[in-house]
Amino acid sequence: MKFLISTCLLLVAVCAHSTPNKYIALTLDDSPRAASGYFDGPTRANKLIAALKAHDVAQVAFFSVSAHLNQEGITRLNAYSDAGHLIANHTHDHPDFNTLTLAQYIANFEQADRELSQFKTMTKLFRFPYLREGDTVEKRDGMRAALAAKGYRNGYVTVNTYDWFIENQFQKAIKDGVKVDLTRMSHYYVDMMVQSIEAYDELAIKELGRSPKHVLLLHEMDITALFLGDLIAELKRKGWIIISPLTAYEDEIATFQTTEVLPYNPGRIGEIARTNGQTKGLWPRALQESYLDQQFEQQVMQVVAPK
């Protein structure tokens, strides 16, 4: 009996050890994003830096918009840079590529390249605002050539989220005088982020036969400052390993380039799925505004009746 128990325990240990690790990098768009709601800019930055440090995340990437570089914005990006986090290019003023000419868009990108070069951890990664990489072949290929000429890599995402929509829900409730329960808000936020992560990972495994090194899209916002630590803790509890974006962009999917023109890009995993013939399920349920409104009402706004 003792031998049987020992053998079972050994098998459990071997199975647990053989479970593939899952890796994910954290990236935050739009920094230094306007801060006129729950936190001011310096408070938001301090809380983000503290949360990352407390949860042993050594490096994330802040995809930054150079039009926001007033003195406070410069101070905020310097704080992120001084903490070891990457500063990357998210254009000068966050335009929609679908509404600009190629020449206008390249000029916008190049202006951000010049203005963001002042930060010591500036890294030549470029993320397209709204993930829109060109609605014509000329735009798509022209921007790819412009990035290559400047030594940039595409700062793609594998996990899209609608955290910006959740931020709007939170800020509206606060503005309307609602006393939001931050514990309930955290549970809702973490739930929606994890739903997106797991949906895209399942899609990746289906299309690639493996879990790639993921890149999570977040934004530099108040809810991120409030709840990023809770999200990291939950990811670690589920077995995810947080890695640097530089490590994530070493995955072989970094070299993938779709041959399609996608006015509305679903992210790198969605691109690969479309190439393989899939057209549905590229935007998970946690990216649907009606679902988010329903979940916000149920998880945050509704008062649980006493039993």
Brief characterization of the structure:
By secondary structure, the protein is α/β, with parallel strands linked by helices.
Kindly describe this structure.
With 307 residues, this protein is of the alpha/beta class. The protein has one domain (19-301): Glycoside hydrolase/deacetylase (TIM Barrel, Alpha-Beta Barrel). It is 50% helix and 11% strand. It is built from eleven helices and seven strands. Strands 1, 2, 3, 4, 5, 6 and 7 form a seven-stranded parallel sheet that branches. β3 (86-89), α4 (102-116) and β4 (122-126) form a beta-alpha-beta unit. α2 runs parallel beside α3, α2 runs parallel beside α8 and α7 packs antiparallel against α11. The radius of gyration is 21 Å and the shape is globular.
Provide key terms for this protein.
307 residues; alpha/beta; TIM Barrel; seven-stranded parallel beta sheet; globular; disordered N terminus; NODB_dom
Oligomer designation = single chain
CATH architectural designation: Alpha-Beta Barrel
Q: How much beta, percentage-wise? A: 5-15%
Number of domains: 1
Figure out the total of helices.
11
Q: Estimate the mean pLDDT confidence.
A: 93
The biggest beta sheet is recorded as:
7 strands, parallel
Number of strands: 7
Overall structural class, as computed from helix and strand content, comes to alpha/beta
CATH H-level homologous superfamily name: Glycoside hydrolase/deacetylase
**N-to-C CA distance:** 46 Å
What radius of gyration results from the CA coordinates?
A: 21 Å
Return the string of H and E elements. Answer: HEHEHEHEHEHHEHEHHH
Q: Can you tell me the overall shape?
A: globular
GO molecular function: hydrolase activity, acting on carbon-nitrogen (but not peptide) bonds; metal ion binding
GO biological process, one term: carbohydrate metabolic process
InterPro entries: Glyco_hydro/deAcase_b/a-brl, NODB_dom, Polysacc_deacetylase_ArnD
Pfam families: Polysacc_deac_1 (PF01522)
